[in-house]
Known about the structure:
By secondary structure, this protein is α/β, with parallel strands linked by helices. The protein has 2 domains: 5-16 and 87-217, Rossmann fold (3-Layer(aba) Sandwich); 18-81. Helix content is 49%, strand content 11%. It has 10 helices and 6 strands; from the N terminus they run βαααααβαβαβαβαβα. Strands 3-2-1-4-5-6 form a 6-stranded parallel beta sheet, with helices on both faces. The relative contact order is 0.18.
Amino acid sequence: MSFQAVVFDMDGVIFDSEAKVIECWQVVAEKYGIPDIEEACRHCLGLNRDATRVYMLEAYGQDFPYDEYKTEMSDLFHERYGDGRLPVKAGVRELLPWLKEHGIKIALASSTRRAIVEAELKAAGLYDYFDKVIGGDMVEKSKPAPDIFLKACNELCVEPCDAYAIEDSHNGVRSAQSAGLKCIMVPDLAPATDEMRELAEMVMPDLSAVMEHFAKNI
């Protein structure tokens, strides 16, 4: 095994955040009588802010006050999980320093806006592990388009074929594969389907297993 970089997704890979976002959306949905919010949220896994907004308006109608509800959800999410209270996924605090010790470049490619990404990484004490941080607001097209992974590799000065992507969402796996990275899927809310097993190089249960795989084969 030879590779120069690892590009991580954030939500569902670094942080146990996707379930927490759905939790907060469910509170808002119950308050305002919004049906099927969990299904809508699951459809949006891996999408950036603009693509999520487009989907929500298509699903609930153009008069759906999405921006108002999203603000209320975000305020609740920050109240519950801001300031470093967002749970970190298993294996993160072992894998990141291991990659650093072995001279592997590290980037983050998240559909979340860069300012939020940086704030959450800093609050968790993880920011300094990343050589580059790419947010969803820094590329034109959202996952599953390859743009964000191509930008991450460009900023790391590595070819996509020399990098691994770590993703949990179907849209993220599609994005990484179409960009030419070797993708490892670590499922969170979205299970590995036959399509995902075909697109990803492998499916691993958690980041501890990813580190073990790298350590045995590097």
